[in-house]
């Protein structure tokens, strides 16, 4: 029974993929990401829409698909593997950087606000961490409460230049705002 349902789902999604491959109109306009920023020496959470949004790629290998420029990066990128239930404690972003969670679950809280963010690893796992010690006295707190290892890539921004964006609202992005 279950496998019949699964097969139907697979066939439906295969058909959807095939349809997408020939379609030209993008399904979504931009990428919305949760941002750990800072204001008045205190870390904040905001939801940003990255600008410019998706365009149709003309590069070999991805031609015709949707692509979004994340802006210039530099320095040493790193790949972290955090054990299940790891407590990252209170800290500042070591550099202004993209943090791309590939698995697991990160729970971000703030010392001076009740706002929080839950970031699940996967295709919707990219955030910007910008609260370096220079701009935030007390940083933020990150815990990894799941039973799975959390894998994260950290990619520093070039020249501390944040990507083009529009601030959608204060607080973390909501599930439907990041859904790809
Ligand atoms: C990158 O890492 C190397 C080796 O640890 C270090 O010498 C270098 O200064 C680092 N570069 C930056 C931009 O942090
Ligand atoms: C920022 O906050 C830290 C920790 O609360 C404090 O020690 C520091 O003096 C503050 N810096 C400014 C410029 O207010
Ligand atoms: C990002 O947010 C905008 C504004 O709320 C919304 O129109 C758009 O669909 C969102 N993008 C994604 C990928 O969900």
TrEMBL record:
Keywords carried by this UniProt record: Signal
Organism of this sequence: Aspergillus ruber (strain CBS 135680)
Origin: domain of life: Eukaryota
Residues annotated as signal peptide: 1-19
Protein name as it appears in the record: Small secreted protein
């Amino acid at each position: 029974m279950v496998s019949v349902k699964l097969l139907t789902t697979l066939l439906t999604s295969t058909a959807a993929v095939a349809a997408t491959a020939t379609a030209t109109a993008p399904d979504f306009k931009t990428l919305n990401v949760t941002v750990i920023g800072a204001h008045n020496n205190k870390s904040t959470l905001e939801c940003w829409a990255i600008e410019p949004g998706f365009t149709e790629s003309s590069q070999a290998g991805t031609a015709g698909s949707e692509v979004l420029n994340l802006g210039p990066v530099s320095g040493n990128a790193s790949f972290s593997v955090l054990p299940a239930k790891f407590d990252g404690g209170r800290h500042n972003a070591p550099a202004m950087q993209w943090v791309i969670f590939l698995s697991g679950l990160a729970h971000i809280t703030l010392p001076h606000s009740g706002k929080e963010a839950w970031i699940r690893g996967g295709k919707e796992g990219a955030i910007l961490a910008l609260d370096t010690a220079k701009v935030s006295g007390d940083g933020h707190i990150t815990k990894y409460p799941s039973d799975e290892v959390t894998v994260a890539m950290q990619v520093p921004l070039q020249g501390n230049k944040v990507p083009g964006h529009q601030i959608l609202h204060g607080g973390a992005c909501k599930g439907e705002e990041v859904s790809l």
